[in-house]
Design goal:
The chain is of the alpha/beta class. Helices cover 28% and strands 28% of the residues. The protein has helices at residues 12-15, 73-89, 130-134, 136-146, 208-217, 232-239, 252-265, 279-285, 307-324, 342-356; strands at residues 3-6, 20-22, 26-29, 38-42, 48-54, 59-65, 100-105, 114-119, 122-127, 152-155, 172-175, 181-186, 189-194, 222-226, 244-249, 272-276, 292-295, 329-335, 360-366, 385-391.
């Protein structure tokens, strides 16, 4: 195993169990590792710090274990089984009203670079590191052994792997074969999941509990669901008794998916309408007809260099929504940018409210559900931030 030695005093984050080694912290390597190799990391004094996957880029090593142990089939089996047992404890397995959940959440499950979402009997696996991609067949075999209900494993990493990695990135089934779309069930509602062409693994599993909360408040409200994607929030609003639901997304494909999901769950719904339009243009055309608005945009900042512009984007978007929403209304607003902290997001919303000149109170502070756990030593894992605001 190749050994990577850190510069003096650069071991502090690893001693606090943060699972990333940045390239600037490396002093030397006894040999040049290939991308995806398992390497040993030691301090400048030679003290063992951890073992992990090597990768070219800013994050040079993702630590798999802070123990000096072999990273073999038994290691992967133990980690995946631990993740599965926790989901069983959470009560997410084999539910008639919910057949999708996240099995592996990267650093949150001590498997950095790996995401696995479950859709009934299919696991959709997404590698964010070369190391995880190279062992995808091993991981797939283990998932099928550990999770008895899984019959198919689909690899969907073409868009998440480093673009410069000289490896085969083609998506496809590793185990089994099933149609590339099917109807999944979430809290009793049916949604079309397209892991072939859809974003993430095909569905935004992370908003499950927040959609349920919105349903509680939707009765008799006029709802605007911005960045609707597949219409998750729209369907919950309709089931909650909303008198009007408008779904907006710049993608015509997303709007088609939203319409199909609404028809599946509410075939006779005449109070839903969708619009394939730019978010800001749509908000500019609004005349105060909504008393519930959902803002769930895609990540405005995917890296630290984009934070400043992202915060301006969140502020501008929320200011417009606060300006047009009716008095005594609810605004559900989110950021899924890992690079944006909770405090930064909240400050952007504060600035938006102040500039809009409205009285605003926070009713709920939202985050990702329990099957998207946050490693306490890796605060960056808390990527989903949300606020429910009462706008007077």
């Amino acid at each position: 195993m190749i050994t990577i030695t850190l510069k003096p005093k650069k071991e502090k984050s690893l001693l606090r169990f943060h699972p990333w080694v940045f390239s600037g912290a490396i002093q030397k390597m006894d040999k040049k590792p290939a991308e995806g190799d398992v390497v040993k990391v030691v301090s400048s004094r030679g003290d063992f710090l951890g073992v992990g996957h090597y990768q070219i880029g800013s994050i040079a090593v993702r630590i798999l274990s802070f123990k000096d142990e072999p990273i073999d089939t038994h290691f992967w089996m133990r980690r995946i089984n631990d993740a599965y047992q926790m989901r069983k404890m959470l009560g997410l397995i084999n539910l008639p009203q919910n057949n999708m959940y996240r099995l592996i959440h990267g650093e949150g499950d001590y498997l950095p670079g790996l995401i696995v979402d479950i859709y009934d009997d299919t696991a959709v696996m997404q590698a964010h590191s070369v190391g995880m991609h190279l062992i995808r067949n091993v991981l797939a075999e283990i998932i099928v052994k550990v999770v008895p209900e899984i019959k198919n494993v689909y690899s969907k990493s073409e868009t998440t792997l480093p673009y410069y990695a000289p490896i085969e990135k083609e998506d496809g089934y590793i185990i089994g074969k099933k149609s590339d779309t099917f109807m999944a069930v979430e809290n009793g509602l049916q949604f079309e999941v397209d892991w072939l062409k859809g974003q993430k693994t095909g569905f935004f599993v992370d908003q499950r509990e927040n959609r349920k909360l919105l349903e509680k408040y939707a009765k008799d409200r006029s709802v605007l669901n911005m960045f609707c994607y597949t219409g998750g929030f729209s369907a919950y609003a309709l089931r909650g008794g909303a008198k009007l639901v408008h779904s907006v997304d710049s993608s015509a494909i997303a709007i088609e998916s939203t319409d199909r999901n609404v028809r599946t769950n509410f075939p006779n719904a005449s109070n839903h309408q969708s619009f394939a339009e730019d978010a800001f243009k749509f908000l500019d055309s609004c005349t105060g007809e909504y008393d519930m608005i959902i803002l769930d945009p895609p990540a405005f900042a995917r890296h630290k260099n984009a934070i400043r512009n992202a915060l301006k984007g969140y502020q501008r978007l929320n200011e417009k929504a606060i300006q047009i929403i009716q008095p005594n209304s609810l605004l559900f607003t989110f950021s899924c940018s890992q690079a944006i902290s909770k405090d930064q997001f909240r400050l952007a919303i504060f600035s938006a409210a102040a500039d809009a000149g409205r009285d605003v109170r926070i009713l709920h502070q939202l985050t990702q559900p329990a099957d998207h756990p946050i490693n306490i030593y890796h605060p960056e894992g808390e990527y989903l931030k949300g606020l429910v605001l009462f706008v007077e």
